[in-house]
């Protein structure tokens, strides 16, 4: 049982450290439920950019916080989401393992 307690304590500490990093990140981090556009999480930097406090923004709909234009008006349910088509990008190698896109003319 001691080992299980030690692992649980290490996991809790790791989760706290990750949480501190995400919350204090200088980059805005915003997690939104795609079906409802409801804000699930945002860090302090994202809250500073959006305006409302973190506690006010969490649970709010993203269109109520920022102007999404037409994207906020359309149905965002599963039927409205389509996969992004993949495009092939031509690559070449030139004597090394580094790969670079071909120059476009």
From TrEMBL:
**Do you know which InterPro entries this protein is assigned to?**
PAS-like_dom_sf
Alphabetically list the UniProt keywords: Plasmid
Q: What is this protein called?
A: PAS domain-containing protein
